[in-house]
Amino acid sequence: MSDFEDQAMKRLSAHLSSTYAALAALCLNLPVPITLPTGAVSNIEATPAVRRIMEIVEDQPMPEAQQASLFAACAFWLGALDLYGLLAQGEFSDARAHSAAANLLMASDTMSDVAEWLGDQPEPLDG
């Protein structure tokens, strides 16, 4: 790989990690919290966990729009991870790298929608 390709891969890897960390934090704040693996997490651990969110998102007591946003964030993150895998296998292309980055931007954007909704919810009363 060229220096440019190495740098692009490092940036994508960092963005994948930070987006996953944001997803894990968001999931802890859902009406029914979901705990994702955290710390030094490999794709072998993260992938099934994110897929599981997609399977159970409809069980979250929140409006359909927020359920759809959470589902989309997971789908975008998984798509970016798949693209990263192709890039890492030596099939680097600028278009594929930009597509992975775009997926991560969309994942962050849709997570922001859910986070905004969560922030607008009243705090539960401790009783």
Description:
Helix content is 72%, strand content 0%. The chain starts with a helix and ends in an 8-residue tail after the last helix. The protein has helices at residues 3-28, 43-56, 64-88, 94-119. The relative contact order is 0.17. It is an all-alpha fold.
Structural class determined from secondary elements: mainly alpha
The backbone outline, from C-alpha atoms, is: elongated
Give helix % range.
over 70%
Distance between the termini: 59 Å
Low-pLDDT runs of 5+ residues are: none
Number of helices: 4
Proportion of β residues?
Answer: under 5%
E-strand count: 0
The value of Rg in angstroms is 16 Å
Order of helices and strands: HHHH
Q: What kind of sheet is the major sheet? A: none
Tell me, rounded to a whole number, the average pLDDT: 93
